[in-house]
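Database export, one record per block. Field names are fixed; values are copied verbatim from the stored entry.
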Amino acid sequence: MTRLVAAVDIPKCEGRSITVRAGQELRVVAVDGPQAADLVAWNPDDVRESVSSWLTRHMSHNFGRARDIYTKLPAGRVMFTVLDERDGMLWLSPGRCNRLKYGDPEHPNCQDILAATIAPYGLSAFDVPEVLNVFMNPQLHEDGTYEFRASPVEPGDYFAMRAELDAVVVVSACPDDAPYNAGRPKPLRLEVWA
């Protein structure tokens, strides 16, 4: 039987961090329904080893589903095993919203939110790792374009992964009013179960 060992609430348009140990389950909870979670994670013993959406996509041969979440090369190790392989939960693109997207340097964005959240670890904006986009439901078209729809989650639903390595996890509750947020930013919650 598993029990909740740690939890962190993430207000809308903000970021928070949590540590998860190998063998524990990390849950990203959609507190109020569809809300993109821009997730970065790294090995606490070596910040150079961080999640790689690109390598995960390459190894899974898929833009929207994966069983194993890899760290970047040269390590290329499995950091997480996905326990929730429903469609519409992942977008395996390393990007995140930023000032350029909004054309406004004052608009909240995931790049700046993540940079501020990793700063206490001695990291800068240049150190923001590749992002694992959770609760993003991409629809790919034959001509190479794509669009997003709201992730198929209800309030309280969660995306779960088992940690295969110890990891520091940082998540931004995306401030966009896009379809993946069902038109408005909302809070998220991180939970660790063991």
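Remark 1: Residues 4-193 form one domain.
Remark 2: The chain has a mean pLDDT of 95.
End of record.
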